[in-house]
């Protein structure tokens, strides 16, 4: 399976409009996979408790932060998400000289969720993920299928003041603090000679394998990538197009800018085909710690035919039932060995309705155009309301406990109007 999925972006002041950080990601996954959006409250745990990730059980920490996640419905982790401290993380599949292990360990998506649950800053998330990587390793199939699909992971991580890029190869890794105004990543290594944190044995391992002579300037991407670039051409072109789209709006990047980038099909960023964009996220994080952040998720495939719906962290949040897939507990085919002997129905309520409307958009041009226009109007009106919150704060938190779910209802109502 060649690199063919995911683009993650972050824009920092002064590239953004106002003192805000804008984070965005398209999750590109198998076209028949359902992506759900869920929130989990903060929790305290007793000493010695465990947490069951996708394939393995690991030690739980004393306290986990509240998180909102967009994830393939069959696994524990997440493709992307945010926590109550406004840390955002998205991961990318990367392939390099080190073979990706199919032995079951932590998935990169598990590491996204663990980083969000355990870190209150972007830099702390780098530390959390790398410590877990060292202790438990990364590996296991990343698709709900008997066909094993494995990869290493890179992560783009942001908070209220900065962003970090973390890239891994097996248990080895390098991290770079983002100094520029924008950064985007695709399915290729991007850290070169600016390395701000690293695995203590990362360079020596590369030297022992003959990938680096131990004398020339160390370039992580050059050393750990494939010798030939043919395998990463698709991700390379998307990376270049994404960078161009960011640069084009530099100084005035907004949530709408990021949504437009994620919807862009000409660049390949909004992916179609056997691998397609199955979920999208855009977050707006004011640098002022006194102001709330707004995290938008589609919970449906193809952002061009979806509504970005807002989520704000407040107390007493209600579960996101309309974007929550059915749970099969211990009977889930993912939990039984041998795994993936069957695929249960994982479609959540919004996915089912969106599937119908996507078929209408595809086959009835005029009617489909009216539905898309209705979606855009809803999105625009919702974002205008969110602008007041982003600028002035939350007056009545109780009004936001069902913010995302209420927007889902309005989206479904738009489907039925035309």
TrEMBL record:
The record ties this protein, via Pfam families, to: Peptidase_C69 (PF03577)
Please give the residue ranges the record annotates as the region Disordered: 322-345
A GO term, aspect molecular function: dipeptidase activity
Extract the InterPro entries matched here. Peptidase_C69
Protein name per Swiss-Prot or TrEMBL: Secernin-3
Q: Name one GO biological process term.
A: proteolysis
Highest classification ranks of the organism: Eukaryota, Metazoa, Chordata, Craniata, Vertebrata
Family the UniProt entry places it in: Belongs to the peptidase C69 family. Secernin subfamily.
Gene3D superfamilies per the record?
Penicillin V Acylase, Chain A
């Amino acid at each position: 399976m060649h690199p063919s999925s995911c683009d993650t972006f972050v824009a920092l002041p002064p590239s953004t409009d106002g003192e805000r950080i804008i984070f965005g990601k398209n999750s590109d996954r198998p076209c028949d996979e359902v992506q759900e959006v869920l929130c989990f409250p903060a929790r305290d745990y007793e000493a010695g408790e465990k947490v069951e990730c996708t394939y393995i059980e690991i030690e739980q920490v004393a306290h986990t932060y509240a998180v909102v996640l967009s994830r393939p419905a069959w696994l524990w982790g997440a493709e992307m998400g945010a926590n109550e401290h406004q840390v955002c993380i998205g991961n990318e599949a990367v392939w390099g000289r080190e073979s990706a292990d199919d032995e079951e360990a932590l998935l990169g998506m598990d590491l996204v969720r663990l980083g969000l649950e355990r870190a209150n800053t972007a830099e702390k998330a780098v530390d959390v993920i790398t410590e877990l990587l060292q202790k438990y390793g990364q590996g296991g199939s990343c698709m709900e299928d008997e066909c094993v699909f494995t990869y290493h992971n890179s992560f783009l991580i942001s908070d209220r003041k900065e962003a970090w890029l973390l890239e891994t190869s097996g248990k080895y890794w390098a991290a770079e603090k983002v100094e520029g105004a924008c950064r985007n990543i695709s399915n290729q290594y991007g850290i070169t000679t600016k390395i701000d944190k690293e695995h203590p044995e990362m360079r020596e391992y590369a030297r022992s394998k003959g990938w680096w002579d131990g004398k020339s300037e160390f370039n992580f991407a050059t050393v750990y990538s494939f010798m030939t670039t043919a395998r990463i051409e698709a991700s390379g072109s998307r990376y270049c197009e994404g960078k161009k789209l960011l640069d084009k709006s530099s100084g005035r990047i907004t949530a709408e800018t990021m949504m437009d980038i994620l919807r862009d099909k000409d660049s390949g960023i909004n992916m179609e085909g056997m691998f397609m964009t199955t979920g999208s996220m855009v977050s707006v994080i004011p640098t002022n710690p006194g102001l709330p952040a707004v995290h938008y998720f589609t919970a449906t495939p193809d952002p061009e035919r979806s509504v970005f719906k807002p989520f704000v962290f407040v107390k007493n949040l209600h579960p996101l039932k309309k974007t929550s897939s059915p749970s099969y507990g211990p009977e889930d085919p993912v939990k039984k060995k041998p795994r993936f002997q069957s695929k249960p129905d994982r479609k959540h309520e919004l996915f089912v309705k969106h599937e119908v409307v996507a078929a209408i958009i595809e086959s009835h041009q005029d009617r489909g155009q009216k539905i898309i226009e209705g979606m855009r109007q809803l999105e625009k009106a919702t974002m205008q309301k969110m602008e007041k919150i982003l600028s002035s704060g939350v007056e009545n938190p109780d009004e936001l406990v069902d913010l995302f779910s209420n927007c889902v209802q309005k989206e479904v109502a738009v489907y039925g109007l035309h």
